[in-house]
Each structure stands twice: as C-alpha cells, then as structure tokens.
Amino acid sequence: MARYILKRFLYSIITLWIIITLTFILMRLLPGKPFTGAKPIPPSIEENLNRRYGLDKPVYVQYFKYLGNLLKGDLGMSMFQQNRTVNSIIAEGFPVSASLGIRALIFALVAGLLLGIIAAINHGKTWDYVTMFIAVLGVSVPSFIIGGIIQYIFGVKPFKILPVAGWDGFKHTIMPSFALGLGTLAIMARMMRTSMLDVLNQDYIKTAKAKGLSKKTIIWRHAIRNAILPIVTILGPLVASITTGTFVVENIFGIPGLGKHFVNSVNQNDYTLIMGLTLFYAIILIGMNFLVDIAYGFIDPRIRLVGGKE
Predict the structure, then answer these.
(1) pLDDT per residue over 9-53, tens digit each?
(2) SS (H, E, C) the chain
C-alpha cells in the first residue's frame, strides 16, 4: 500500500509541475502585455514596472525565479491590485467560494444520491421519469440561466422571499447554492441510477432475495454500498471544481469569491494573479484526485495490488 501511495504522490507532483510550466508559457503567449490597458502609459513608467516585476529579464530566468518563489510558498504580487499579494487575494476570496461550494456540494450530494436511488428502485415508472427530467435539466441548462430564473421568481416576483444578490447571512446562500449545485446533482443522480440498476441485477442481489431478505434490507445493506463506488471516483474533481468558485454564479449573485478575481486577472493580463489562481485550483484538483486514489485503494484492494504491484 505504501508503494501505491508513493507512486500516486509522484504522479501528482509531476502533473503539478507540468501545469505550472504550461501556464507560465501560455501567459507569455497571450496577446498584449501587462500594464498596456485602455489607457496607454509612458514608456519610462512601463519600463520601471517591468523591472519591478522582473519582466525585463529573459524568460528562462523569470521561470526559475518563479519556481524558487513557489517553493517558499510565495505566489508573487498582483500587477494590478496595488500592494496586494496573490496569497492575500486567495486567502480573502477562497473562504467565500469554499463556503458556497460546500453548501452546493452537500445539496447536490444528498439530493443527487437520493434521486438516483429512487429512480433505480422505480425503474420505468413515474418517479424514474421525473428524476431523469431533473437530471437532463441540470445538465442541459447553464447555471447562469438557472440563477437568473430563480432570482426573478424568488427575489423579484411573484414570491420575493429571498435577497437577489449579496453575501450576508443564510438567506443569501440559498439561491446561489441551488444554481451552483444543480449541475452536480444531475451528474450524481444519473450515475447513481445507472450504478444502482447494474447492482440490482447482480447475482448476489438475487440470492439475497431468494433468502427472503426484505427489500429495504437489500437496498440499504447491499445495493447502495456497492453502487456508490463510482460516485467516489468523480467526487474528487467535483469537490475541487465546486469549492474553488464558479465565476458565473458568483458574478450573477454578487458574491465576493475567487471568481471575480479570475475574470479580472484575465482581462488585465495580470500574469501573477492568473498563474496563482490556476496553480491554486490545480493543487486542490490534484490533491482531491490523490485522496480519491488512496480511498479507492482502501475500498478495492485490487487497485492497490495492481497499481503498486505488491
């Protein structure tokens, strides 16, 4: 097991280094340059700014200096937000994005698994069709459309019972959590339904029925435990995606998370902020996948035996 974990960890480090390198190169290939926005600045000032941020040095020198700073945990200074480090921007925005993401994830996980189980148990019946309609709706309709619709219904009229935007109290979290979590709910519901249907047709389920076990016992003690395994596989990327902030939902509901910083950094060619946010997302995504790999190794011993060749 130790060899399996070490192997997955090394893969994660290599993947992270590749992401850092590609992001650094792509930043230099973007059209335009930093500090050349709508209002042109004098060449002397631009030269001083390039010197301050090290942009006057050869690209390979900038690259190795950036790697050295990363090893110290320093993501650099934002090029457009004066006297603000990328670390402080992430520290300010991530708790908000994470709070929204966790609420949306809990909603999606509970409702998605429940709907998937109900659909599988009632295969070919009304509840199955209702669940699949919700799943198709969640996958097909973009989150900003869902957000706009529920804003109008529950924030403007006819009900007007929830605040339209902002981030100040529990009521402000209800609509954005629903808009952000619906797509994840749809994915989980469809996967859980498919997995449950497959498990319910297995021989050991038929044996359990033949032994006279109740339907409730078969579902809760045998079927769900095995059907939930595929959900574990996709949980890592979903957690990373949903907790690091979705800029569309955050912008619609006026939430001060990481989303607005990412959009602004791209518009302003803020190299350090773009790279810092991309790296931060990559670390969470790779970290979650690493934890999922380890969890899967414990759940299914065949994986760690094959992966680690023990």
Answers:
(1) 898 899 999 999 999 888 877 776 676 655 667 777 778 877 888
(2) CHHHHHHHHHHHHHHHHHHHHHHHHHHHHCCCCCCCCCCCCCHHHHHHHHHHCCCCCCHHHHHHHHHHHHHCCCCCECCCCCCCEHHHHHHHHHHHHHHHHHHHHHHHHHHHHHHHHHHHHCCCCHHHHHHHHHHHHHHHCCHHHHHHHHHHHHHHCCCCCCCCCCCCCCHHHHHHHHHHHHHHHHHHHHHHHHHHHHHHCCHHHHHHHHCCCCHHHHHHHHHHHHHCHHHHHHHHHHHHHHHCCCHHHHHHCCCCCHHHHHHHHHHHCCHHHHHHHHHHHHHHHHHHHHHHHHHHHHHCHHHHHHHHCC
